[in-house]
Amino acid sequence: MRRKLFAVVFALAALGTGLLTPCRAQEFWTGLTLRAKVTKMVGVQVEQQFRFAETIGAYKSAVTEASLRLRPWEHLGGALSYRFTDRAGSGRADDNDRQRWSADVFYTLGSGDTQWTLSHRFRYQQARTAGEADGEAKTYVRNRLLLAYNLTKRVQPYVSGEFFYRLNGRNENQLNRFTLGLETRIGKKFTLDTFFRVEKEKNVKYPETAYVVGVTGLYRLSFRRKDSSDAEDTVPASL
């Protein structure tokens, strides 16, 4: 019991530190994801997210994403996604609206019945400025490792690291993302995710470090009449 209490206090303290950390580019992300199972192996997902910058006082962008999720096996799955990013509030001339297509493959070791869960996600993505079909698409390969601790059936602290590798002839790592978070299950269908994230640019002309605080929600739906074995619940909601 003391170890569980210590883990909760540590996670909350770390998140609180992130909220108070003075930094050059602090951001706040918030949004809601709706995830629905159509069949035992096929699901759909829609996400709406809003991002704020400059000490959380200025609107930066809105992100809308739709995904088709495939889960043929309990520990192995994938997703195909389309994302549109409205960057009207960015304030930078080169940050126009973006369109992105991505394909994911993810694998999970562990389940809700084990103490630890280790997940790996591989993502291939292409993004380009909206309305510029002839412009150069930015192509990345992303790898993310996530380690979660099942503190209770409803509380799950986690840490993750993600590495963005730019292709398009550059073949170099351009961004590293590190996250400390806490997922809380509220009822049977809703999960609240609070996190503190550090993003460090590399191999760019003017590299920046961004500190992000996030609060997002995931609501699960099902179009199936019977849904006794929900494979989605065996992995962190962030997958």
From TrEMBL:
Keywords carried by this UniProt record: Signal
Signal peptide residue numbers: 1-25
Keyword Transcription regulation: no
Entry superkingdom: Bacteria
Record InterPro entries: Bact_OM_Channel_sf, DUF2490
Gene3D superfamilies: monomeric porin ompg
A Pfam family this chain is assigned to: DUF2490
The name this protein goes by in its record: DUF2490 domain-containing protein
